[in-house]
Amino acid sequence: MPRRRPFTTLIAALALLLSAWAAEARSIIRDAEIERGLQELAAPILRAAGLPTSTRIIVVNDRTLNAFVADARHIFIHSGLLMRMEDPAELQAVLAHEAAHIANGHLTRRPANARSAQSAARMGLLLALAAGAASDNGRLGAGIAIGTGSTAARLFFAHTRAEEASADQAGLRYMVQAGIDPAAMLEVLEIFRGQEALSAGRQDPYVRTHPLTRDRVRSVEAFVNGRSGSAAGAESSAEAQYWFARTRAKLGGFLNAPRQTLRQAGRTDQGEIATLARAIAHHQNADAARAISEVGRLLQMRPNDPYYQELQGQILFESRNFAQAVQAYARAVQLAPREPLILAGYGRALLAADTSSGNARAREVLEQAYARDPFDPRMLRDLALAYARAGNNGMASVVTAERYAILGRMEDAEIHANRASGLLPNGSGGWLRAQDVLRVAEAAQSRRNR
């Protein structure tokens, strides 16, 4: 018998998280290509730290400079800090420092309420991870998440000076073990030097949660100056440089103004990274013909790359060329059959094409996406539509209830969960999921009445 996922615990924790930090909420950027690039860059660091390479690196859509951990499974980095990095080793230095907080157990040494706060953060973040396009206006997929500006969040994420020094030293060791030049950590610290003299309102959040002291800087300098091993002065590998450039090109292409992207990419540079940037910029300018032309060049360079196939599907879909979008997404799924974000895009395109066979296939694909990443509100909306078109209104109500619960709209979640309970057989899997949502709604109501 398959294990039932603890939906009640997850949604209840999200409700706790949002109630505490809703005023400072930021959005999460979801993109399969960006996540792949960050995992490639993080993998050697995670192995050196003794952490699973499945530890996820998540981008927060925020132009300020920050990175943090909230549990043992996720490292968060603001888009502003990621785009500020000029070399993959600098980004890996940030990841090494945050990985050290996990490996050294700093998250378990918080005040008495840390255990519940950590649980809420972990579960809430898991739900927020795939809240892609919760507002349906982000082409990379922006959704709900936590913030780090509120007092509650700062207290939770803030590290002591001793923890920071410990994370520095451990992170430096991880970098050396991974063959990454530890001097990159010093370069990152230089970015923040002098910020502690600024007023709190002018400081980047990294400084407020990661106290920077002269002793820390001196300690890192001493470590770097004392190294004579193979990692000292080492250049980043070609693979690291590639994924770093590709990740920044994808992220910057969607976050920056198209004019800026096109100026930086240039017209004559026919390299892969510049071509990727131009494709996104033209798409942002609603110039589908030029965007598709640039993606075609990318696919000539890498015909078996699922992320370029996905990008082609996205451009075609958002240009309302649904039939061709279906073909592009189908090819992407063939190349990456286990990637939930690509599966979700394929299902969405199939629903947009709206054929009887396509609707049936969409339901199958979206169920596969759900099984791998069940906390994506946009995917849940599409899955509900697929169930409704198949005449299964009970399951449509279940996933709609779950979507509203993830988005924190508990009254709407309760309405749809009650509807599902009346439509589905007692004791069935869908009926049990509806009861989970009802229990969460009841708990949320009790919390509001306290």
TrEMBL record:
TPR repeats lie at residues 306-339. One of its GO terms (molecular function) is metalloendopeptidase activity. Residues 1-25 form the signal peptide. It comes from the Bacteria. Residues 299-396 form the Cytochrome c-type biogenesis protein H TPR domain. GO terms for cellular component: membrane. Keywords: Hydrolase, Metal-binding, Metalloprotease, Protease, Signal, TPR repeat, Zinc. One of its GO terms (biological process) is proteolysis involved in protein catabolic process. The keyword Protease applies. InterPro entries: Mito/Outer_Membr_Metalloprot (IPR051156), Peptidase_M48 (IPR001915), TPR-like_helical_dom_sf (IPR011990), TPR_CcmH_CycH (IPR056413), TPR_rpt (IPR019734). Residues 31-222 form the Peptidase M48 domain. Its cofactor is Zn(2+). This is Peptidase M48.
